[in-house]
From TrEMBL:
<protein>
    <recommendedName>
        <fullName>Endoglucanase</fullName>
        <ecNumber>3.2.1.4</ecNumber>
    </recommendedName>
</protein>
<keyword id="KW-0624">Polysaccharide degradation</keyword>
<dbReference type="InterPro" id="IPR018221">
    <property type="entry name" value="Glyco_hydro_9_His_AS"/>
</dbReference>
<dbReference type="InterPro" id="IPR012341">
    <property type="entry name" value="6hp_glycosidase-like_sf"/>
</dbReference>
<dbReference type="InterPro" id="IPR008928">
    <property type="entry name" value="6-hairpin_glycosidase_sf"/>
</dbReference>
<keyword id="KW-0326">Glycosidase</keyword>
<feature type="active site">
    <location>
        <position position="415"/>
    </location>
</feature>
<dbReference type="InterPro" id="IPR033126">
    <property type="entry name" value="Glyco_hydro_9_Asp/Glu_AS"/>
</dbReference>
<feature type="active site">
    <location>
        <position position="475"/>
    </location>
</feature>
<keyword id="KW-0136">Cellulose degradation</keyword>
<dbReference type="Pfam" id="PF00759">
    <property type="entry name" value="Glyco_hydro_9"/>
</dbReference>
<feature type="active site">
    <location>
        <position position="466"/>
    </location>
</feature>
<dbReference type="InterPro" id="IPR001701">
    <property type="entry name" value="Glyco_hydro_9"/>
</dbReference>
<keyword id="KW-0378">Hydrolase</keyword>
<comment type="similarity">
    <text>Belongs to the glycosyl hydrolase 9 (cellulase E) family.</text>
</comment>
<keyword id="KW-0119">Carbohydrate metabolism</keyword>
<dbReference type="GO" id="GO:0008810">
    <property type="term" value="F:cellulase activity"/>
</dbReference>
Length: 498
């Protein structure tokens, strides 16, 4: 797991003259459809539990089969969030929301086979999330002691570390994880509505119940003394729980069209900080995504009572446009969106996703974006997103694809246990906690290619050393890939957006 603290953004204002001298690249050879396929395939490498017969990354095997046993609850399944063997509920729920949103917004342009794969990836998560909230007024937020896990370098198939279960019971609060879980289940209900109506109804009904828990017992899950040492500093709630309440309500409104959720996001916007931190979107801070999501109600539904959300979404988009007087974005010399803290590509993929979604909303409502002295249509936003995507796939100063297995030049030594250790097929004997150190310290490429994994990415100067120990750059995460699925689906269908 990459401890990427969700600290406030400190943007560097750059002028148009600086931006326009950034290098441009010829990306005519990029294969977005191939990247889409691989971005979904990566999630199979992150699976925990009993693997199905059609598992494509065959070097992975069953793992975590006793998860929940000590608590007399069945918690197998779900995803390992990154290169370790812990199941963190907060980022897993966000990953699920973004995968589902990718299907909701871009599923209609996905090739049928990849749409199926995407839905399978969503369901692998939602089946697990349903288990975590199967008992009313309780949520299981994590499986695995990260402090012990991070002192080992072993395959998930060999895990002999404590599979500690972390839970929160009412009246103790978990508004952030419960709110994000409600969002994930509600968004997923929309993704499955046409394909499995019964499952979709189960997801939506459960989302409603989980949101009630999140809203009734307000507070951050990481403030609970009994679990704090297990979730912090890894996926602590750094930015507060209020955004997840609005986020969960917004998704329930979208999925159910229930007027009570519309009233909730309208009446609670200011008290829950809807106007704060609008320039960030990720596993801990949902503000920019919330504003874009709710803007659909204004742009397409003419619900002007929510105009403040749209104004915040407009403001966020204007910060991304270099020619705008309100441009407040930090770029690497090669043109990649950058912010400090590690695992930088999570920002590039989430922001690209929001750019494309907002472009679609503007296009459907025949509206433009006004940023002071300049204005532009959907194509302007899509071009900014495309620049980020092309950089990630290889159009950058190093000429390296930051997606593993894509093109001929990609990271070989990623910070990922099961990728860096020999598979059970090649090494049937157990590899103990400390016995994996020789593989961690090796300069050899990882023996198992984690196809589709997008790593944390280069530094602010576009450098990348392909060093397994430099986890801030070399570790992939599910929440980098999840929004990238939707982004790549769009560009696979529209490689030259206008």
């Amino acid at each position: 797991m990459t401890p990427t603290l969700s600290t406030p953004l400190h943007f560097l204002v750059i002028s148009l003259s600086i931006f326009t001298i950034l290098p441009t690249y010829n990306c005519s050879y990029l294969n977005y459809a191939d990247a889409l396929s691989k971005s979904i395939l990566f999630l199979e490498g992150q699976r925990s539990g009993y693997l199905p017969g059609d598992q494509r990354l065959s070097w992975r095997q069953n793992s975590g089969l006793s998860d929940g046993y000590g608590e007399s609850v069945e918690l197998t399944g779900g995803y390992y969030d990154a290169g370790d063997n812990v199941k963190f509920g907060f980022p897993m729920a966000f990953t699920t929301t973004m995968l589902a949103w990718s299907v909701v917004e871009f599923g209609d342009v996905m090739p049928p086979g990849e749409l199926r794969n995407a839905l399978v990836a969503v369901r692998w998560a939602t089946d697990y999330l349903l288990k975590t909230v199967s008992i009313p007024d309780r949520i299981y937020v994590q499986v695995g002691d990260p402090n012990i896990d991070h002192n080992c370098w072993e395959r998930p198939e060999d895990m002999d570390t404590a599979r500690t279960v972390y839970k929160v019971d009412a009246p103790n609060p978990a508004s952030d994880v419960a709110g994000e879980t409600a969002a994930a289940l509600a968004a997923s209900s929309m993704a499955f509505r046409s394909y499995d109506p019964g499952y979709a109804e189960t997801l939506l009904r459960t989302a409603t119940r989980v949101f009630d828990y999140a809203d009734h017992y307000r507070g951050a899950y990481s403030d609970n003394a009994n679990i704090r040492d297990g979730v912090c500093p890894f996926y602590c709630d750094f930015d507060g729980y209020q955004d997840e309440l609005l986020w969960g309500a917004a998704w329930l409104r979208r999925a159910s069209q229930d007027g009570s959720y519309l009233s909730y996001i309208q009446n609670n916007g200011k008290t829950l900080g809807a106007d704060d931190n609008i320039n960030e979107f990720g596993w801990d801070n949902k503000h920019a995504g919330l504003n874009v999501l709710v803007s659909k109600e204004v742009l397409e539904g003419n619900i002007y009572e929510l105009q403040s959300y749209k104004a915040s979404a407009d403001s966020f988009m204007c910060t991304l446009i270099p020619e705008s007087s309100s441009s407040h974005i930090d770029y690497t010399p090669g043109g990649l969106i950058y912010r400090p803290g590690g695992s930088n590509l999570q920002h590039a993929t989430t922001i690209s996703f929001l750019l494309l979604v907002y472009a679609n909303y503007l296009e459907k409502s025949s509206q433009t974006l006004n940023c002071g002295s300049i204005s532009g249509g959907p194509s302007m936003l899509r071009k900014i997103a495309k620049r980020q995507v092309d950089y990630i796939l290889g159009e950058n100063p190093k000429g390296m694809s930051y997606m593993v297995g894509y093109s001929n030049y990609f990271p070989q030594r990623i910070h990922h246990r099961s990728s860096s250790l020999p598979s059970l097929k090649d090494h049937p004997q157990s590899i103990g906690c400390k016995e994996g150190s020789i593989y961690y310290n090796s300069s050899n490429p990882n023996p198992n290619v984690l196809v589709g994994a997008v790593v944390g990415g280069p530094g602010e100067d576009d450098t990348y050393e392909d060093d397994r120990a430099d986890f801030r750059k070399s570790e992939p995460t599910t929440y980098i890939n999840a929004p990238f699925v939707g982004v790549l689906a769009y560009f696979a269908a529209n490689p030259n957006p206008i």
